């Protein structure tokens, strides 16, 4: 059985007019993968998300997909940050602190991230008729997550250039905020010296 972690129901995301989200991840297998998926209440579309396959990253924002050609080599840690500003109508994608992609976000799209949605790490999900979060199979991350955070501000290139260990002010890497079926593993090899979550921790 695949394991995944979801934001606790009592930890809610506010509506955001701009944001930054960062994740530190390490893939172990060359499969289709999902880093995180956020869905608005009652919506099937991905409000905000990140995943990939072979040498492409896919970023979802308001149901729209953006594809970026970049290879995240296996067994290495990669820091991926997305920033978005509704006012500036732009989405930026940073890998290891370098901006690789900037895309305009259509002005017709909503200018606010929907609040109170559902967020999963390492796997995509849907909400069933009983309101329970269910994982989608076939595209979960076979690897590790070392850090995740969401901030209510669009960080600039200058701020993202240096690795930061600051906790997200909207969602932080504090596992009390998360419901997880995989125990976190302390890891001192990481720059921020925290723990990692093995999203691939089932026994074959
Ligand atoms: C990001 O940095 C790490 C550590 O320096 C490196 O192993 C990894 O390959 C880098 N990722 C990319 C996509 O450049
Ligand atoms: C979002 O959740 C908070 C806290 O549970 C609640 O007070 C608020 O009414 C909710 N807002 C919407 C739009 O559902």
Automatic annotation (TrEMBL):
Keywords: Calcium, Disulfide bond, Glycoprotein, Metal-binding
InterPro entries per UniProt: ConA-like_dom_sf, Neuronal_Pentraxin_Related, PTX_dom
Record flagged with keyword Transferase: no
Bridged cysteine pairs (disulfide): 22-81
Gene Ontology MF term list: metal ion binding
Oxidoreductase is among the record's keywords: no
Annotated Pentraxin (PTX) domain residues: 1-192
Cofactor(s), by name: Ca(2+)
Domain of life: Eukaryota
Pfam families the UniProt entry points to: Laminin_G_3
Name assigned to this protein: Pentraxin (PTX) domain-containing protein
Naturally occurring in which organism (per UniProt): Mastacembelus armatus
């Amino acid at each position: 059985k695949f394991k995944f972690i979801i934001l606790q129901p009592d930890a809610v995301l506010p509506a955001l007019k701009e944001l930054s989200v960062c994740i530190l991840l390490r893939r172990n297998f060359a499969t289709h993968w999902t880093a995180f998926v956020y869905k608005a209440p009652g919506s099937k579309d991905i409000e905000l998300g990140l995943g990939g396959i072979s040498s492409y990253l896919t970023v979802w924002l308001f149901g729209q997909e953006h594809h970026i050609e970049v290879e995240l080599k296996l067994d290495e840690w990669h820091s991926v940050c997305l920033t978005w500003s509704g006012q500036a109508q732009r989405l930026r994608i940073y890998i290891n602190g370098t901006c690789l992609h900037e895309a305009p976000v259509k002005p017709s799209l909503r200018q606010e991230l929907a609040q109170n949605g559902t967020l999963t790490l390492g796997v995509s999900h849907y909400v069933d008729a009983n309101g329970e979060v269910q994982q989608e199979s076939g595209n979960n991350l076979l690897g590790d997550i070392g850090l995740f955070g969401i901030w209510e501000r669009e960080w600039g290139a200058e701020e993202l250039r240096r690795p930061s260990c600051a906790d997200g002010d909207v969602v932080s890497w504090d596992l009390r905020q998360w419901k997880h079926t995989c125990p976190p593993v302390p890891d001192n090899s990481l720059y921020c010296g925290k723990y990692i979550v093995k999203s691939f921790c089932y026994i074959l």
